[in-house]
Amino acid sequence: MPAPHRTPTRHRVTALLGTVLVLLSASGCSGPPPATTAPPSSAAGHGAITGAEEVAEPPLMLLSVDERGEVGLVDLLDGAASAVGRIGAPRALASDGRYAFVTTDAGIEVVDSGAWTWDHVDHFHYYRAAPAILGTVRGDGPAVLATGPLATAGSTGIFFEGSGEAVLLDNEALSKGSVEESFRLRTGAARGIVAPWGEGAVIAVDGVLRYHDRSGTPSGAEVDCADPAGSITTRAGLAIGCADGAVLVTGDGEPVFERIPVVDGGSRPLGFDGRKGRPTVAGVTGGDGFLLLDTRERAWSRVATGQALVRAVAVDDEAGHVVALDGEGRIRVYADGAEIAATAPVVVGDPGVASLWLDAQRAYIGSPAEGVVREIDYADGARIARTIETPTRPVFFAEVGR
């Protein structure tokens, strides 16, 4: 195996938060973030739990699940591989950077990688603990997952399309090895989103976004949102996709809803994706291009690519830096609306089922038919830095420790 990718400890002073989470390390703790942000408060601590070891740098690993449900981990720093256990045959996988939420016939099976980063806005803490299979959230049909910014505080939202149930999981309980539901509501809807916000969640069903507290009780805060699709937490707030663009949820306490319409008359994004800790997110439209949403500036920008894209992930908010996967299995890198690098095809088979994850330095793209994950240095001409053989075939995988 080529030399491992070692991610140095990064120090960055940030005014607000990015798309999914961030990485960083320092010693003291600052005061709370501005009220318009959605990160955790200092009351949630530093992400430490009993039995976990604090480490000096992000404990980056790949968690892979094969077609039988066998789960494995490979350390991106030293290449060490290990088996975690077995779950049901996977249908889909979502991750917040620590847990893998795997859709199976039983519902959502939760796997704890034992590796996570705690975002304290102006600095970061990194932890390692023993990996484990935690248990199952029972549910029917496809599941839509929405994760929050922290693995040991806040919540994770699940909407089961088969039963129309909206479920909110307690992340603090997950961090202690227990799968506990804060609420489970029968909505009667066939589609929906449960997006964690504050102590509760914004639930999107029947064309309305409505805030529910931790017990599941709805508040008076709501706004229309036709055909909701996609949600993501950024430094500036919670973005939820609607037919006419997006709604940004902000505020301290009772949520404030703000519309950000797509004003050029073009198609809306089918979802949102971006590297943890950045305010700009990207989304493919089902055509030849992608949209960028700057949640700080409340502004959209559309980029035509000339190729049909399967995924588009915003790397950061400078120069519209985006890493995308096209329909032929190539990784393409964009900046300022122009393509700056591309690979040859790196996915054998259907790119639409390939997993793509990014951190501050690398992209990881799975090729399940080959049983490998390729590490792409997207800042160096989309160079293939190494090909990683995971301990279980990566039918689904996630980069964890972020």
Write the layout of secondary structure elements.
Elements: E1 53-55, E2 61-65, E3 70-75, E4 81-86, E5 92-95, E6 99-104, E7 107-112, E8 115-119, E9 124-128, E10 132-138, E11 143-147, E12 155-160, E13 165-170, H1 171-175, E14 181-186, E15 193-197, E16 200-205, E17 208-212, E18 218-224, E19 231-234, E20 237-242, E21 245-250, E22 256-261, E23 280-284, E24 289-294, E25 299-304, E26 309-314, E27 322-326, E28 331-335, E29 338-342, E30 356-358, E31 363-367, E32 372-377, E33 383-389, E34 396-400
Antiparallel strand pairs: 1-9, 2-3, 2-34, 3-4, 5-6, 6-7, 7-10, 8-9, 11-12, 12-13, 13-14, 15-16, 16-17, 17-18, 19-20, 20-21, 21-22, 23-24, 24-25, 26-27, 27-28, 28-29, 30-31, 31-32, 32-33
Describe this structure in words.
It is a single chain. The protein is mainly beta. It has a single domain (42-400), classed as Methylamine Dehydrogenase, Chain H, CATH 2.130.10. It has one helix at residues 171-175; strands spanning 53-55, 61-65, 70-75, 81-86, 92-95, 99-104, 107-112, 115-119, 124-128, 132-138, 143-147, 155-160, 165-170, 181-186, 193-197, 200-205, 208-212, 218-224, 231-234, 237-242, 245-250, 256-261, 280-284, 289-294, 299-304, 309-314, 322-326, 331-335, 338-342, 356-358, 363-367, 372-377, 383-389, 396-400. It has a 4-stranded antiparallel sheet with strand order 4-3-2-34, with no helix packed on it. It has a 4-stranded antiparallel sheet with strand order 5-6-7-10, with no helix packed on it. Strands 11-12-13-14 form a 4-stranded antiparallel sheet. Strand 5 and strand 6 form a beta hairpin. The longest helix has 5 residues, at 171-175. Mean pLDDT is 88; it is low at 1-43.
